[in-house]
Amino acid sequence: MKCPVCEMDCVKSAQDVLATLPSLFLPCPDCSLRILDKRAPLPSLEYARPCSCGKRFIDEVFAHMYVIMVAEGDLNRTDPLIAVGSPLVHPGYAMDRPPFLTEKSLVLLSPRVTKKTAERLVAEVPELRGVVRTGSFVPGITSPDLKTVPKVYELLAGCDVRADIFPLRTGPLVVYKQQSLLHIEFPRGGYPKIRAVEQHVGNPPARYFVDACSGAGTLGLSAACLGVPRVVMNDAWYASAFWSAFNLEVNRGYLRIRRVKIFEQFEDMQKHPVTRYPVKIAETEGEQVIEVYQGDLLELPPVLLPGVPPLAALDLFDKNDVAATRKIQEEWLARAGGEAFIP
To answer: Quick one: DSSP state of residue 253?
Structure first.
């Protein structure tokens, strides 16, 4: 499957991703283990090379990156190891122990890395797939106000497309995303949002499910995998709508669909990054009908199937603003009917 960012074959089908588990990040008998204090500087500017099996403990990978960033002047010798940045493992899932990383299995998020250093990191650290420079903001849409184009992080080198794995009662779901453009939501133990979808969808499943703020499509795809016959995924942010559509193809083998028709390509969607009135991005052919739109969630009801009250997940960004969240939920119900829950 061609990656829309690097145009290589780094994107795999869900079946191919899951075939590598559960031993992907486990050590072989010859792997070495050195646990480092993340709150202290690296004791010496040294690091171990990958094992003959190709894996290396994550702390050792961070030591390698620390040495390079100190040499390039991005870090001071007195900086703690944690100053290198934040790791996002590919594929990501809730782990009970730190991983032994394989080649191209890590995206680094760092506010301090320069482009020159990022290119060296990707060239010299085999576990790295991409380096992203972060800022003091969350990428993508974080407010109901759609009048401005949201800020995004900057991909400095490599590819920042990675997958997360979410367990469902029907089997695992694989969700890809470009990490510089979307909210960072690494899988947590217990997977509360997935459990909320399972509870509300029920068994036998609901007839019609709407993931109104879909992000990369996790909740809508969960509903589809749980057997909901009609699903709509929607997001006003172009990157979210695109990856919702792309992830339909990634998980096609687990859905009752023959084909995914994508009407908008990534490059074209960048020209209208935020859309208020819904534009259809993709739809499926087959026993299940799944549609993807880009638009304001409150403008979506006119394109929904008439006469079938939907079950809607409203996964709004700032749930801490209880009054604003309740207002959006009430307005959605007034326009769309059915049932709506906040996962």
So the answer is: G
